Amino acid sequence: MIASIFNDIDLMIMLVGALVGIASSLVGTFLVLRGSSMLSDAIGHSIVFGIVVVWLLTHQSSGPWQILGAALTGLLTVFLTELLVSTQRVKKDAAIGLVFPVLFSLGILLINLYASDVHIDAHTVLLGEIGFVWLDTLTIGGAEVPRALLSMGGMTLVNGLFILVFYKELKLATFDTALARALGFAPGVLFYALLLLTSGTAVAAFDAVGAVLFVAFVIVPPSAAWLLTDRLERMFLYGALISIASSIIGYQLAVLWNVSIGGMMAVMTGVFLLLAFLFGPRHGMLALWQQRRRQRALNDSRTLAVHLFNHEDGPEQAVENVTQALRDHLRWADSRAQQVVERARHKELILQQGSLLTLTPAGRQLAREILEPGQHQNT
Looking at 280, 303, 331, which one is the last position of a domain? Predict the structure, then answer.
């Protein structure tokens, strides 16, 4: 059964993409929440320098030494960025933009000078080719398993265990660094450990999907998840589900339209982000529009209650507490005035007798709640 599953090339490709997405979104969630998500872009590019240096020292183009070298390069990127920021002459975004192009350029130059005959090139690092992961396999239990599947499965497991073990410390360090430091949690060390895992994930992913898709998976699914929920646990779940769905749908569309598989997977993460941006239950544009609409309706009901209360039982009640007065004095259009009156009647705030509008006890109480604080302040 295992052999039949791993002989399915389509499943291999989608599974590798899903694992890259899950591993990346796990660490990316904390980067997004810390406002440091663009460090993943810097790491994704600068690891080229570490990969080339490790190859020059060991002549190994893959394996644990490559992961270690790339991870250290990622930390070097962050260290140099923080060093520039500490001068107070360069802002963080500018420092990132200064550091990673230098390391990336040095890596490309070293490839051209010393590794031009080795399968390390800029196109592979940036774009990868997830469609070919099934060609590089290991035999396990009689089944040919892609190396990328093993490496990304391992990184997903490592990232998940790290977050599980240090969840409380990471959560506190992310949302309240000062308190975490006061409690002795060493938030700086945790942050660098997180970046170390981010770098390791990047080098494990680049051969299959490239740096571009890696960066998309680090940033976009957690950002979409953030629009869907305010709970950290659910952010991990939603980020993983978005990554899985982006891999499956992206692959199917790429095959259908004969386009780049990695590119289409990245596009699908953007599609899910757009959907979350539009239809998120709390922070989506539709939800915000509905909130504003409800607030406007509430304000209109309050305005109507106060208007009727101010003229209640007075000599001008017959003139002021009618629908026509709402149009003339409150500058409401006919349709709006009618909607407000109907809504207030439905909420049992007012009664309508012919053209005259009168407050119910509930409407009168609402008006008093609004007016009494103002009257108290005036006195």
Answer: 280
Q: What is the DSSP letter of 347?
A: T
Please state, in angstroms and rounded to a whole number, the distance separating the CA atoms of residues 245 and 110.
38
Please tell me whether residues 342 and 202 are part of one structural domain. Answer: no
Q: What is the pTM of this model?
A: 0.82
Please give the structure tokens belonging to residue 177. 């660094």
Strands 143-146 and 350-353: unpaired
- Do residues 216 and 295 share a domain? no
**What's the residue count for the chain?**
379
Q: Judging by beta carbons within 10 Å of its beta carbon (0-12, 13-18, 19+), is residue 335 exposed, middle or buried?
A: exposed
Q: What percent of the chain has pLDDT over 90?
A: 43
Residue range of the domain that includes 250: 2-280
CA 288 to the chain's CA centroid? 18
Q: Are 23 and 152 in contact (CB under 8 A)?
A: yes
| Lowest mean pLDDT, pick from 80-89, 96-105, 110-119, 181-190 | 110-119
Number of domains in the chain: 2
Cα–Cα distances in angstroms (integers) from residue 236 to residues 171, 227, 242, in the given order: 12, 13, 10
Residues 273 and 291 grouped into a single domain: no
| CB 307, CB 326: distance < 8 Å | yes
pLDDT of residue 125 exceeding 80: no
Residue 204 CA: distances (Å) to CA of 23, 53, 154, 157, 198: 10, 16, 9, 13, 10
Name, in order, each residue with C-beta under 8 angstroms of 27's C-beta and a sequence gap of 6 or more. Answer: 159, 194, 197, 198, 201, 218
**Based on the number of CB atoms within 10 Å of its own CB, is 50 exposed (0-12), middle (13-18) or buried (19 or more)?**
buried
Confidence grade of residue 219 (pLDDT, cut at 50, 70, 90): very high
Residue 359, classed as helix, strand or coil, is strand
Tokens of 234: 């659910």
Give the pLDDT mean for 277-294. 91
Residue 275 shares a structural domain with residue 183: yes
| Dihedral of alpha carbons 131, 137, 140, 144, sign | positive
